[in-house]
Write a structure and sequence with these properties.
Number of helices: 22
Largest sheet: none
Helix content: over 70%
Shape: globular
Distance between the termini: 36 Å
Radius of gyration: 23 Å
Strand content: under 5%
Structural class: mainly alpha
Length: 513
């Protein structure tokens, strides 16, 4: 179990690292082959079709929570009946997603006719059709991938993610070079999704030996699942409003080029979210077990702080690095025509960091089945974000949308939610922020150092930027190691390093003898 948790978190970061490396190499090539306008069209289609994706209703977390419950009770038959119930729910939601997706596609002209020409609207419909099929299929058969997570088989899941990240661009790039464009990208993504759904199903039945039982319908359990998932469903709506609505609004008011610029800036928020969720996601099952067994508020609070500190070490490094080198990186990466993307990313990222380092708070709420207040607050904040974005986009364009999102994050995910964690969930928020405050010296020092280096050494080639980032990274980790990290955090680095070193020595010794 411990090995799966550690390996899951490690592989999550490895997968994220692979994604970032591939993105650095793949994105500029893709942009060059597609062009700014078609990339914006592809991003717009992804954002619009993404609304269908929220119809998975947040059931994944429910599967994990109730699997943990039945496993704690050693009720295998109850587990199999649970999977049968979930499969029926998933299939129904997948069908609903397909129907609603078709209705959305049929009404595309109504939303985008003022900013897109006839050819762009036709391609947008085709892209959305493929994406809707992909999403609805993923929803309908999504229960199997979640069952793998519920059994805490993180290694298998993360290996699928890594393989997918590597294979996808290898298959897509030749087709782009042949001139097939965004349609080919979407088809390849869909085919890979179907393949990995099949792999998850095979793993569930052959390795985990699960069974799907369609026994007597348990109306009480069904209602409990719906109540639990409804709050997560609200969070999915909120997430979609935060992450995709700005691009849809830009598509309505400003066209595909503006969508393209915003999409590049917003892509960095996905990387940062990955840094956070890579750790917190693997703890949902464990926290659920702790809550079921009656863990105290103090125990949960200590876990919240401990994981938050680890997340902050990584995320503050990424944030400080992006603040210092982000503009130069974007200029070299995708070109100076995307300079505004740096401002977009920065305006969203700075307030977003708080919710990322408090990812365990959401996990604890889900485990306690107390996520209602957070969902309700966030839905109103997200709706406000849409309204403010519509106003701001007509004044400040792309940056206006980013400002609206930043304001919303600050109100909802910093001020109100921290107060709720403290007063209602009884997490020790003052202690958490004291910890974060004392850990912030390396971040401040690194930003000052990086800004000074930028004034002395201008970046116009990748090698210079790499040298600057290397020096910055060494300073950050040395200052973090000697001024901020505790024994537990240092051991997260020392223990794996010792293990690798010992294995290397043993292998070298065996080769010599």
């Amino acid at each position: 179990m411990i090995n799966q948790l550690k390996a899951g978190a490690s592989l999550s970061y490895f997968a994220l690292f692979i994604n970032i490396i591939i993105s650095i190499i793949y994105t500029p090539v893709m942009l060059n082959l597609l062009g700014q306008s078609e990339y914006g069209l592809y991003s717009l289609a992804s954002s619009a079709a993404g609304y269908v994706g929220i119809l998975n209703f947040g059931l994944g977390n429910a599967v994990i929570r109730y699997t943990a419950k039945y496993k704690a009770l050693n009720d295998e038959e109850g587990c199999f009946n649970l999977y049968g119930l979930f499969l029926k729910i998933y299939l129904t939601l997948g069908l609903i997603a397909l129907i609603l997706g078709i209705l959305l596609i049929l009404n595309t002209d109504l939303f985008f006719s003022s900013s897109l020409n006839i050819e762009e609207i036709h391609k947008l419909k085709l892209l959305m059709s493929i994406m809707v099929f992909n999403i609805s299929t993923g929803i309908g058969l999504g229960v199997f991938s979640v069952i793998v997570l519920a059994h805490e088989k993180f290694i298998f899941q993360k290996l699928i993610v890594i393989v997918s990240s590597i294979i996808s661009p290898l298959l897509i790039l030749p087709l782009l070079l042949m001139g097939y464009g965004s349609i080919a990208m979407t088809i390849i993504t869909t085919l890979l999704n179907l393949l990995f759904i099949a792999l998850n199903m095979y793993y569930c039945f052959k390795t985990l030996k699960i069974k799907i039982s369609f026994g007597k319908f348990d109306s009480k359990l069904f209602k409990e699942i719906i109540v639990f998932s409804s709050y997560i469903f609200l969070n999915l709506i909120i997430s979609q409003l935060y992450t995709s609505t700005d691009q849809v609004i830009l598509g309505i008011y400003s066209g595909t080029v503006a969508v393209s610029v915003y999409a590049i800036g917003a892509s960095f928020t996905g990387y940062f979210s990955g840094f956070s969720s890579a750790i917190s996601n693997v703890f949902l099952s464990r926290v659920s077990g702790m809550v079921i067994k009656g863990a105290s508020n103090n125990e949960l609070s200590n876990l919240f702080i401990r994981i938050g500190r680890v997340q902050y070490i990584i995320i503050s490094f990424a944030l400080s690095g992006f603040i210092v080198f982000g503009q130069e990186f974007i200029n070299l990466w995708v070109g100076k025509e995307y300079q505004v993307s740096y401002i977009v990313a920065l305006v969203i990222l700075v307030p977003m960091i708080v919710s990322l380092i408090q990812g365990m708070g959401g996990v604890i709420l889900q485990a306690k089945n107390m996520q209602g207040f957070k969902s309700i607050v966030n839905i109103f904040i997200a709706i406000s974000n849409v309204i403010i974005s519509i106003i701001f986009v007509q004044v400040w364009g792309v940056i206006g949308c980013a400002i609206a999102t930043g304001i919303s994050f600050t109100l909802g995910n910093i001020i109100i939610i921290n107060y709720y964690y403290w007063k209602k969930i009884k997490l020790n928020i003052p202690k958490f922020w004291i910890n974060i405050l004392f850990m912030s010296f390396p971040l401040i020092l690194s930003i000052i150092y990086g800004a000074t280096i930028n004034k002395v050494l201008l970046t116009n080639i990748w090698l210079v930027l790499f040298v600057k980032i290397s020096g910055f990274s060494i300073l950050y980790f040395l200052s973090m190691w000697f001024t901020a990290m505790n024994k537990y955090e240092k051991n997260l680095f020392i223990v794996p390093a010792k293990s690798i070193y010992q294995k290397f020595r043993l292998r070298l010794k065996n080769q010599v003898t």
